[in-house]
Amino acid sequence: MRRILICFLLISASCADEELEIYDTIGGDFVLHDQFGDKYQLSEHNGKIRLLFFGFTHCPDICPTTLAEVQEVWQQLSAEQQQQIEILFASVDPERDSSDLLRDYLGSFDLPVIGLRGSDAEMLEITAKYASFYEKVSLDSALMYTIDHSSQTFVIDRQGEIRGWVTYDQPPSALLELLSRLL
Amino acid sequence: MSSLRILPLLLLAGACSGDSAPPIESGDSQAPYLEALEIEDARARTSRPPHSNSAAFMTLINNGNEDLVIVGVKTPRAKVAELHTMLHEDGKMKMRRVERLVVPSKGELELMPGADHLMFFELDKAWRIGDQLELTLLFAKHPEQVVSLEVEK
Predict the structure, then answer these.
(1) Residue B144 CA to chain centroid, in angstroms?
(2) Probe site for chain B from A109, A139, A143 (most B CB atoms < 10 A)
(3) Does the structure's ipTM exceed the value 0.90?
């Protein structure tokens, strides 16, 4: 029994010490504007861990669910841990997502989210760098059009490197685990 | 988690009251099957600014011997209501409107985020957490069903 316990402790220690991979072929610096109209450059915020999600305010399903799950994770962190993290919501609907709308939308979550916006050209370039995707699609619906988009939430370390991501079908605990290994 | 058996509308209630219902003409209610319909965990999502849309989710359980085909939904809290699904293709999320959703015989249909769900547009006002809503599910061959649910986060 004692031997089993020691093995378990060794395995646990080994997992905790294991470094997260650095995905240096994707991601990188970018410059956008936040929901208050101020410039936001990713590299100027190095020193913080960043969570980056590409979404849009008219998104009725994936985006509010993702933000609600991030909120769930956020609430499990201490105030000290929260101060080390920035949450970024980059709009892939430049046509509809004005600064005002982003401000109102993100303000409805109990979560300090920085809303980012840029031109369509800028967003296409940035999403490509992040191996992500979005496309405006006409819909036979009152929604008029939707945006097909990737659903990853990227975890970016204090140096601006991607260290992992979670997809929509993963539970909030997956994001918490990633974060806890960087905090 | 709430569980409820859905009651047919009052107009149709008489036809649903027993196993000895008369033969059903095409297009009329087929009440015995609806008696087998149960709905669990019905909830709507709070709307967010600009409060242009919201969604509702639930699990529909069909204990009957015939598929139940949902062809629409309506609510007094929104001018437009639609059936939607979410396709997951190569890591991309694609929401699409669908004409129908099927609750299979002796099976269930889970309406949930990231999958089949009910969508609402042109809301009367913001859907706030705690609001009580009433939705009506429209079926291809069965009477419409009213579902009460609460708005959650």
Answers:
(1) 9
(2) A143
(3) no
